[in-house]
Amino acid sequence: MSALTITIDGPAGVGKSTLAKSLAKHLGTPYLNSGSLYRAVAWKVSKQGVNTDDEDAVLALCKTTNFLLSLQGDYQSVVVDGTRLTHELWTSHISLIASEISRLPTVRTFLRPIQRHCGNDKGIVAEGRDMGTHVFADAEIKVFLDASPTIRAQRRFLELQGHDAAVSHETAASELMERDTRDANRNSAPLRPASDATIIDTTDLSAIQVVDAILALIKQRQIKHRSDPTPTIDTTKQSLASY
User: Fold this and answer.
1) Per-residue pLDDT at 178
2) Fewer CB in 10 Å around end: N or C, the chain?
3) How far apart are CA 2 and CA 227, in angstroms?
């Protein structure tokens, strides 16, 4: 199969990470979680005590920080100034700071080339909120995921609980809605489907069903361009509720 750039966008709680990782693993393609880069900036901002309302200060911090994203299949490593970050990036506190940072146009412009650099001749599965509209606007396959607010809040709560046991369902739901509103209304690269994206509602779909739907899109493209067959998924080895 020829290398493809595949973008998976959507709000929190739609299953982007689970689905993008699974897709990247089966295609043998590097996986990029673009949000981890904003979280890395948020971690540094929190550590340095920088005011997120001071765009110049946040940008200056970015310019003096060494960010390293290493993509190995469906695994992504994030290193900031020599410190490898894991669970620190996924707390509720860092999530809120990352959302505030993501609305800053100059910071988004600064980080975009770092994300684009991750794309290579092996292709990439990139998930985020503006992958198909801005970072990889020329991607061959673009998907925008959505789900009902109730389902998204539950999924988000379970995700955060895995990193921060103290988080409550009410807090997770409130922060999710606040972030979605902020991201959808920001001036720079707002959260919205690309004009040529396929929209998939994951509310009543299992992870396998969504991945199969994306693989079908890839197969359609390959048939159109007379490419090789798309790899298939052995669904007997995966949970149908693996969000």
Assistant:
1) 82
2) N
3) 7
**pLDDT tens-digit readout, 138-161:** 999 999 999 998 999 888 888 777
Domain count, the chain: 1
Give the domain extent around 60: 5-226
Rounded Cα distance, 21 and 210, in Å:
12
Nearest Cα to 30, choosing from 74, 67, 61? 74
3 state SS of 72: strand
CA distance 115 to 224: 29
Neighbouring C-alpha atoms within 13 Å toward the C-beta of 37: 28
d(CA 137, CA 115): 12
The pLDDT tens digits of the residues spanning 75-100 come to 788 999 999 998 888 887 898 899 89
Task: Name the DSSP class of 25.
Answer: H
* 195 alpha carbon, distance to own chain's centre: 19
**pLDDT value at 232 more than 90:** no
Residue 140 lies in a domain: yes
Q: Domain for residue 237, yes or no? A: no
**Could you tell me the pLDDT band of residue 176, with boundaries at 50, 70 and 90?**
confident
User: How open is the CA angle 190-63-88, to the nearest 5 degrees?
Assistant: 70
